[in-house]
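Why run this: before we spend reagent on co-expression, it is cheaper to look at a predicted model of the complex and decide which construct boundaries make sense. The entries below are exactly what would go into the expression plan.
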Amino acid sequence: MIAATTMFKPLTKYLLKSVEKTLSGRLCLSAKAFVEGEECNDEAISRFMTESQDCFTLRVRNDRALLRVFHLTLLSLLLLFACGGVFAQDIAVTASVNSNVIAINEQLELNIIISGNASDLPNLELPQIANFTAYSAGRSQNTSIINGQVSSSVAFRYALVPQNTGKFTIPALSFQYKNNTYATQPVNVEVVAASSSGPQAANAAPGAARRNGKDIFITASVDKTSAYVNEQITYTFKFFRRIRLLSNPQYSPPDFSGFWTEDTPPKNYFAAYEGSQYQISEIKIFLFATKPGKFTISPATLQCSVEDFSPADISADSFFMNFFSGGKAQTLRTNPVTVSIKPLPENGRPDDFTGSVGRYELSAELDRKTAAVNDPVTLSLKVSGSGNIKTISEPKLPSWPDFRKYETVSSLNIAKDKGEVSGSKTFKTVIVPMTPGDKNLSGLSFSFFDPAKNKYIKLRLPALSLSVKPGAPGQAPQNSQPAESTVKLVNRDIRYLKTPAKWHEYSGPLYKNPWFIILNILPLLGLAAAFFTASYRDKLSGDTALARHLGASAAARKYLKQAASLLSEDKSGEFYCAISRALLEYIADKTNLSAEGLTGAAITDILSKRNISAETINIIITVLGECDLVRFSPSRVSLETMSKTYESAGRLIDMLEKGLKKK
Amino acid sequence: MKTLFLAFFIAASAFASLSARESPLERFKMAGDTYAKNDFEAAKTLYESLLAENRVNAELLYNLGNTYFRLGRPGKALVYFERASRLAPNDSDIRQNISFLRQTIREPEEPFGSVVINLLSGVMPLNTLLLITSVLFFITSLTFALFMLKKKRAALYGAIGATSLLILSGGLLAVKIEHEILSRWAIVISGPAEVRNGPGALNSVGFSLSEGRKVQILSKNNEWFAISLNTEGFKGWLEKKYLEEI
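The model came back. Tokens follow.
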């Protein structure tokens, strides 16, 4: 069992690492205990299993349970870090408030900081927080690249305006990043009743002055009705009141479709308006149009309930009614606001213009003045100023042949407190020098449209200098991001002339060459010859009579030749034997009979049927008889007789050849 | 004055006889040197004098194509590159220059079918393919003859193998013959060429072609060629002077 768990451990550790960010603290704790070997027994394993199952089920079941799970995860992870930091954390997130106790007429500042070793930290979407209205107050980001390792932190600032008094909890805020979910810890806040001074002063004099104008109204205005695409337009919503509200007003913002928006926290102040002192709540929203055209911003509405002082209701009953009913509900509306958006002029648009509008400055710096070949250097390009900072796109870096460029990471800082959106966007690029020497990084520029001056402005930076020392040979940059192509196409042209060493002349297509055609006919002829030979052979092998008939003459000649040599050696016995065989075999072959069965009578019979003259038959019989005589009686025969016999045998075969032609 | 003329005539004839006596390779190199001095007109004359004597090879056609390109005649250049490509379809320089020219004149991408046919047709030059096919034919005949006469199993296997190779090369040959001999191609050598809806200047203009465009010739009629653009599927008639056959 122990051996099994030891084997199981690395696997579990891996598993744990991948689930630790998403699963419950309970699981992590028990799993950790298991991995650490504190409880290496069946019970621990089974608990680990069931708990992990529980967690997964929990995750699927509902989001609230999930949030709780995250809360626990966070706690447990903190615990783990305290214990000695077994696991590396990629992303950390914290939430903090400026004060845990605030008055209802104050604003709570919520800061959420996400930090981690990644450049593309996610944007946080603030959900609806019960009993508070949230406004974004800006964000700021820090990014650093050390040895190719990116680390950054983003701070999101929100202003929370309380709606009710009481003890509240800002719930854990969660976000997704690379398939993992992270969450902040919940924050407890107490909202107390407003201190009696300040805002209440207006209500102190709800006297005659009230009758002079409206007690409560809202306005909406823009600072300009005509603007360029992506130029900032400030939309101001004001809520004027000089009577007491019985409940917190409900504000619904208008529809800003067609615009990028940046909202700001509300401001409360007192001001005189048409001779009366009003308490004013002001909300500014910065708008940036995304396309040209005429846009109408729909009315904003505000719902609130006020004390009802209408004359008809002034009675004892109504006073109590008012007291108990909470006053008169009112819905206020602003006028719709129309703005016309002009397209950016075509004239004088710089090549590198990417749509930024506003007032900007450009600065650049290298993180060091000297570097070795293949040493990464970070180039920071900072665009700062006012305008739609979020949409600033990366200034295109000129191509520096001596440098290899890697991916650019950007960070964003936004402030909205000066009546405009201002801030900076910093682009950090790792560049790697490839050759030694004093290098000048020139050609850095950024273009934008200045709506105030009504023209495009191209900012150019002086060259940055970097002295590059020769590096250790063969040392490759550690960054594994894909490098830019090492080939730079300057001017594509056709390839140059050919300069062959030998002159191979082309002499027309082969199919027009008679030799080629003849050579190709030859195999055809050969094939035809082979085919006829083969079919002839097939015929022979299937027809022995024909084969014998055709081969008879050749066989007879063979025997006669044998006989001739025997004649010259004067071997009478063998000579006659050969002569006899030549004749007999010849006749047998021609008639397709066996040579053994050929007697004198049989020969006469067969040959006469084949129209062979009786004379010839007689000679054959005589010659054969002579042969038999000599063969069976060993008497001497003169050479003369032998040669005579040979000649007549030859003549006989010639005669038979003519007479025994195939029918 | 007369003497001057005479001297010039003698010099000219001497030069002519000199050039006639020099080997084709030397004249070819001479043309290359002229080209290197940016005297493209002279290089063209030299290359074309070789061509006129039927001293042809892929290198000559390629270099003449380059010369025409330098003289600002991409249509003519393409004609020679295409001809060179027929003699040496696997030459990377020729392929490169053809594709470069096609890009510069913005010829549209060919449909998939013709890309495949071009690929099959460009496996090897026609003569190599003919030679391979006839050698395979010889081997096939031999093995079949052996099999018929000797009835050996090995001969049968050899015959089957040789036959399959023969079918392969015969197929390639068929594609090549279809593409290069039976289908006729031409290139617009001066543009813009107005393609009319019938043979004759009285017919209306259907479309116009820029120089360097490759077209298929469907038929010929005195001074007019019926052409088709396979990519776009257009057909029309074009005066002979605008075209040069590959």
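The interface with chain B takes residues 492-500, 502-506, 509-511, 516, 519-520, 522-524, 526-527, 529-531, 533-534 of chain A (CB under 8 Å). The domain at 91-192 of chain A is CATH 2.60.40.740 (Immunoglobulin-like). Bring this page to Monday's planning discussion.
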